[in-house]
């Protein structure tokens, strides 16, 4: 797909990674987003409504 789309290969020499998941049944209010940053890490929570959120760890 990369060749077909004409995209170039990019390497990440520092091994940075992002992982995420969808969480259902959260009790967090639906009217905000949360970003927590620490030394070398970060977490992001985007609330999607209906007690559902997308959570990412960087």
Distance between the termini: 25 Å
Q: Strands of the largest sheet, in order across it?
A: 1-4-3-2
Low-confidence stretches: none
- Domains (count): 1
Strand fraction: over 45%
Helix fraction by DSSP (H/I, runs of at least 4):
under 10%
How would you summarize what this structure contains?
With 58 residues, the protein is mainly beta.
Write the layout of secondary structure elements.
Blueprint lengths: L1 H4 L13 E6 L8 E6 L2 E9 L2 E6 L1
Antiparallel strand pairs: 1-4, 2-3, 3-4
Provide structural commentary:
The protein has 58 residues and is mainly beta. The chain has one helix spanning 2-5, and strands at residues 19-24, 33-38, 41-49, 52-57. A 4-stranded antiparallel β-sheet has the order 1-4-3-2, with no helix packed on it. The chain has one domain (14-57). It has 1 helix and 4 strands; from the N terminus they run αββββ. Helix content is 7%, strand content 47%. The two termini are 25 Å apart. β3 and β4 (52-57) form a beta hairpin.
Name a few traits of the molecule.
mainly beta; flat
């Amino acid at each position: 797909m990369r060749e077909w789309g004409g995209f170039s290969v990019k390497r990440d020499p520092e091994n940075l990674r992002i992982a995420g998941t969808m969480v259902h049944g959260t009790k967090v209010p639906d009217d905000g987003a949360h970003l927590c940053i620490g030394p070398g890490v970060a977490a992001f929570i985007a609330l999607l409504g209906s007690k559902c959120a997308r959570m990412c760890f960087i």
